[in-house]
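User: Let's play a game. I give you a shape written as tokens, and you guess the letters that built it. Ready? Here's round one.
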């Protein structure tokens, strides 16, 4: 009888231990490592995949865990679409929110949405979450391999970061200079300046096409978007962001 009681007690202890271990596993976040443009970091396990907008611009968007990662890196020097870099740096240079420090990590706090930035010459990352513990875990897990592009590199991401914080005019960014779009006037009759907005269809600019080594085209400015200054090429209507 005593032997049976001992066996029963041992069984109860084992079951309790297994239940405790199971609860711990269930309640403890499980992570997996992803690589976004040379940034290896731990994210909660999920079926979310990295979206490649193009060779250089990558997005990881985990809506369940409220984690968004955007990264632009010069993997392909021939990629002419820099809108991803402009999108990230526009957010970086925004005056929204205030810097804060949590768990020794510097973040920007915009009404409970926290953002972390890292940038060097050829790669940049933006991590956003409304969960402080999640974003600090992500940041502390970062293992970065620097991108070293081969070929004629015509863009420097640090230059974009610095220039967009001080200059809102249309511009193309290179390692050595920035070129401002030059205005030319069409032959259409203009209304008086007091009766129209600053940017109208009859204002045509010589716009430098990103990634073409300085090649220009005639385009009309349609305004400022989240991707930068937007122009439409005369004749084709093709959108150009600079």
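Assistant: Ready! My guess for every position:
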């Amino acid at each position: 009888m005593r032997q049976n009681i001992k066996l029963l007690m041992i069984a109860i202890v084992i079951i309790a231990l297994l239940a405790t271990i199971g609860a711990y596993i269930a309640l403890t976040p499980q992570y997996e490592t992803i690589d976004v443009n040379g940034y290896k970091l731990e994210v909660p396990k999920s079926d979310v995949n990295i979206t490649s907008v193009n060779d250089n611009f990558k997005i990881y968007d985990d809506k369940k865990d409220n984690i968004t990662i955007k990264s632009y890196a010069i993997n392909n020097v021939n990629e002419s679409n820099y809108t991803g870099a402009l999108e990230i740096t526009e957010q970086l240079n925004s005056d929204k929110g205030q810097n804060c420090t949590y768990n020794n990590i510097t973040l920007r706090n915009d009404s409970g949405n926290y953002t972390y930035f890292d940038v060097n010459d050829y790669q940049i990352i933006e991590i956003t979450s409304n969960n402080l513990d999640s974003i600090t875990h992500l940041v502390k897990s970062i293992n970065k391999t620097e991108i070293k592009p081969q070929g004629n590199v015509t863009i420097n991401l640090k230059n974009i970061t610095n220039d967009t914080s001080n200059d809102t005019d249309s511009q193309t960014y290179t390692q050595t200079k920035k070129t401002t779009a030059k205005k030319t006037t069409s032959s259409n009759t203009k209304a008086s300046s007091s009766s129209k907005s600053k940017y109208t269809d009859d204002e045509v600019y010589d716009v430098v096409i990103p990634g073409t080594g300085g090649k220009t085209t005639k385009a009309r400015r349609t305004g400022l978007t989240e991707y930068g200054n937007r122009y439409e090429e005369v004749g084709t209507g093709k959108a150009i962001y600079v």
